[in-house]
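for the writeup, i need someone to sanity check this before i put it in the appendix. the sequnce is what the collaborator sent (i think, or maybe the updated version? ugh). structure was predicted straight from it, no edits. if anything looks off just tell me and ill rerun, i have time this weekend
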Amino acid sequence: MDGVINEDVLGFGRVCIQAKKYATGNLVGRDELQKFAGALMQAQSNKGVFITTSDFTKSSYEFVHTLNANIRIILINGRVCSIV
């Protein structure tokens, strides 16, 4: 995890950030998203933003669609914002 944003003064709401600088064509795989989801749980957060300069694999997009409703991960790639 590369950063945490506290949504409130007391720090109860946390948004965790992960960023990867990948070359075009080097896609972020599902395994990276699974690790990030685990890091969210460990940080006691249910909100995350994963940013890459490249893009995500199809299985990465599918993974965030299948997450428990209590966990939300927003994917931002190097071309467009893909909010899932």
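The chain has a mean pLDDT of 88. Residues 30-42 form the longest helix (13 residues).
thx in advance!!
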